[in-house]
Amino acid sequence: MKIGIVCYPTFGGSGVVATELGKALAKKDYKVHFITYSQPARLDFFNENLYYHEVTFTNYPLFQYPPYELALASKMVEVAQFEELDLLHVHYAIPHASAAFMAREILKTRGIVIPVITTLHGTDITLVGKDPSYEPVVTFSINQSDSITAVSEDLKKDTYRHFDIKKDITVIPNFIDLERFAKKSMDHFKKAICPNNEKLIVHTSNFRKVKRVEDVLKVFEIVNELISCKLLLVGDGPERTKIEGLCRESKHCKDVRFLGKLEAVEEVLSVSDLFLMPSEKESFGLAALEAMACQVPVISSNAGGIPELNVNGQSGYVCEIGAVEDMAQKALHVLKDENLPAFKAGALKRANDFDVHRILPMYEEVYEKTLALKAGMIDV
Ligand code: GMT
Predict the structure, then answer these.
(1) 331 and 266 in one domain?
(2) What is the pLDDT of residues 302-320, one digit of tens each?
(3) 163 and 216: one domain?
(4) What is the DSSP string of 1-68?
(5) pTM of the entire structure?
(6) Is 122 touching ligand 1 by the criterion CB < 6 Å?
């Protein structure tokens, strides 16, 4: 089967899921064609079944905003026709679902029938998509998709709550490659960061407001008063300067390090004892799953789909959004030497439920069902 995958090529969760999905499909002999504006971050090697098509566009002085969506739709048409794709799978509704609709309709006029699958990832629904400036197009293009998937039950519910969606949505959770995300022996690194055997707390995100990174600092300050620890902040984004400013006002800042964007995040996770995810919104929480796979328990908020991943008392704890004192008390409990091994084992056990080998067949089933719709699309 030949599949066109459209996604954001950045380190963000939707792009990572799309890229890892493509890589896993390629291993099973699917031909996967990525269509994006630059090489996806995790697609930096050669594989005979993987192809990359860059969306390029001509700017013109008249365009205050270059029409990316049109260039993307045109590229989808070109690739689908030339490569004889069987289906298009777009990740993140904006603007991928509407561009895919346009491409599908153009292809129809050329006698080519190609179904479109849209995977909803989170902020495309919970934040940006429901904004009145996008809502009519998002509603229309989701309804026009031949199949729709969402990464959690909570996101599915939110989609029906915020948009007038007439179709079924299949829930397919995020997944993890347990070969890559496994605890590695990095003792030298742990010694360098925690020379006095301090506990290591970590947070990774894109430093957007919804991640509530200031809560990470607050929780850390409370915990560090009682147990010596260090905090690693991985990632970068719009809130980072503010967070660095807040950190510098605190006496605990000497124990905090900002690492910026890291490709091999599993190396940091391998030496970490606790992961903090206090998000305001989180449709699934891929970063927490990556931590769990490396045997790192998670203290999280109860936002969105996180409770579908983080099992209270097993892989960590789930607290109310903004309840930093509660998060800190739970963190202190988990970090106790007598408790930590069980939580580490619990985190890994939970991560196993999302092994790519378990989740990939769910996407394959959607592909098969969607292809079966193709016959019915011919006369439309
Ligand atoms: O976390 C982000 O803000 C990035 C965002 C994205 O779409 O790139 O991630 C979303 O998709 C991930 C993969 O499905 C989910 O694991 C994240 O929970 C989700 N983020 C939010 O809902 C805020």
Answers:
(1) yes
(2) 999 999 999 999 999 999 9
(3) no
(4) -EEEEE---SSSHHHHHHHHHHHHHHHTT-EEEEEESS--TT--S--TTEEEEE------TT-SS--H
(5) 0.95
(6) yes
